[in-house]
Here is the input.
Amino acid sequence: MKKLSYTLPVAIIAIVAALFLGYSQYRRQVILQECKALSSDRVKFTLSDGWIDRVWQRLPTDIVVTISANPTSQDNAREIRIRDRLKSMGAKDVHYYGPAMPWPQ
Here is the structure.
């Protein structure tokens, strides 16, 4: 009977650990897909790739959005799309860089 009393807590801990690792991998894939989509829109950023990011992916840092000097309606739509994506990711400290602007340090 004593052996059965340890089985339930161990099973609960294993299930919680599996759920956490499953969600963390789902989150990692979502972040990596968003970063790939943002890269195709000429957004530069630094994405950390340490051992902790295999368990819990951190958000990109040093985000720089390249804007054109004479924006068209397509450029404006692109900037709005990028701004919405970055906002949904929870990104902070976003820099905008145009042809007449110095590169952010």
User: Anything to note?
Assistant: The radius of gyration is 21 Å. The chain has a mean pLDDT of 84. The chain is about 60% helix and 15% strand.
